[in-house]
Automatic annotation (TrEMBL):
Domain of life: Eukaryota
Species classification: Eukaryota, Metazoa, Ecdysozoa, Arthropoda, Hexapoda
Species the sequence originates in: Diabrotica virgifera virgifera (western corn rootworm)
Compartmental location: Cytoplasm, Cytoskeleton, Flagellum axoneme
Biased composition (Basic residues): 324-339
Pfam families: IQ
Disordered: annotated segments: 324-345
Coiled-coil residues: 230-311
GO terms under cellular component: cytoplasm; motile cilium
Family indicated by similarity: Belongs to the DRC9 family.
GO BP term (any one): cilium organization
Keyword annotations: Cell projection, Cilium, Coiled coil, Cytoplasm, Cytoskeleton, Flagellum
Protein name: Dynein regulatory complex protein 9
Length: 345
């Protein structure tokens, strides 16, 4: 090993020893401080604090925890008392003894700083909200004054309405008394009028009874006269019934004779109708026969005309073409020469 390496090892060992000495000094100082704090805690009866206080929680989470654990919210979100300092120093002492570092301590410090920052932000928001609450309180006071004014006006209107109701009650009592007196007077007048009507009705009843008796007598006399008239009518009706029976019997006999004559006439008419139908059938058949003969005659004439035209046409064709008996005869050659000679001469 070279001298430089030895020198570096010595320096490194010296540094380690210096660090160990500094940590030991810190440990001894912290141990004395922790012992003193524990003595003060036992004397002052400080409350115990949970060890998870150095874990970061949002203000809402800490607020809920404090309400759940204590039932009320503390004045500060970070508990600043000697118990907090004691547990803080104890944790640092344990970390230095066992791990020879203070990483957890630095993390706890950063956590506390974050919590303090959150607390400051929360306090700022609460101050702003207090201002808003004051403004709302002022608005509430103004609205309360307005509502009180409205209430006063409504109470005044209610008083007026009560006065009107009392006046109405008084007027209604006066009207009711007036109506009662009017009804009593009306009843008295009705009694007077009814008594007069009863007297008039009794007089009318007496007169009607006299008229009824007179009508009964007249009715009896009329019944007697009508019975006599009815008896005379019945006798005349019986007489007319007998006459009607005799006349109807004669008329029935005449009707029987006429019915027999009518039946004979109907038989004769039926025979004539049958004969007429036969003759009419014969006439119709004859007409049909004549029509058929005329049709055949016309058809024959038409055929003859067409046949003659065809024959004439064919005869003309035969004549023009020289067919059949209309063929032209050929002359002999000798005869032609003789004729030529004759022409030359």
């Amino acid at each position: 090993m070279s001298t430089e390496d030895q020198f570096q090892n010595v320096l490194h060992s010296e540094q380690n020893t210096s660090q160990d000495l500094s940590t030991e000094m810190c440990i001894s100082v912290l141990q004395e401080m922790v012992d003193a704090l524990l003595i003060l805690k036992s004397i002052g009866h400080w409350p115990d604090i949970d060890s998870d206080i150095f874990e970061y929680d949002t203000p809402e989470q800490r607020f809920k925890k404090e309400i759940y654990q204590q039932g009320n919210v503390s004045e500060s979100l970070c508990p600043q008392n000697f118990s907090f300092i004691t547990i803080f120093a104890t944790n640092l002492l344990e970390e230095l003894k066992h791990e020879r570092s203070y990483l957890k301590f630095s993390n706890s410090v950063s956590t506390i700083q974050k919590m303090q920052l959150d607390e400051e932000l929360l306090l700022g928001e609460t101050s702003k909200k207090e201002i808003i609450v004051k403004k709302l309180q002022m608005c509430l006071d103004s609205e309360r004054d307005v509502s009180i004014d409205k209430l006063v006006s409504s109470m005044e209107s209610i008083g007026k309405i009560k006065d009107q109701i009392e006046n109405f009650y008084i007027q209604s009592e006066i009207k009711i008394n007036y109506l009662k007196s009017w009804e009593n007077s009306k009843l008295e007048m009705q009694e007077i009028t009814f008594s007069k009507l009863i007297e008039e009705i009794t007089e009318d009843i007496k007169t009607t009874e006299a008229n009824i008796n007179q009508d009964i007598r007249v009715h009896e006399e009329i019944e007697i006269a009508m019975s006599e008239i009815i008896q005379g009518f019945e006798e005349r009706v019986e007489e007319w019934k007998n006459k009607y029976y005799e006349k109807s019997k004669e008329m029935n006999e005449k009707l029987d004779v006429l019915q027999t004559k009518q039946n004979k006439q109907l038989e004769i008419i039926a025979n004539y109708k049958e004969l007429y139908a036969k003759r009419q059938q014969e006439i119709d058949d004859y007409k049909k026969h004549k029509i058929e003969q005329e049709r055949l005659r016309l058809e024959k004439e038409e055929k003859n005309k067409k046949a003659t035209t065809i024959q004439a046409w064919w005869r003309g064709v035969m004549v023009r073409k020289g067919f059949g008996k209309f063929r032209k005869k050929k002359e002999k050659k000798g005869k032609k020469k003789s004729t030529d000679k004759k022409e030359k001469k």
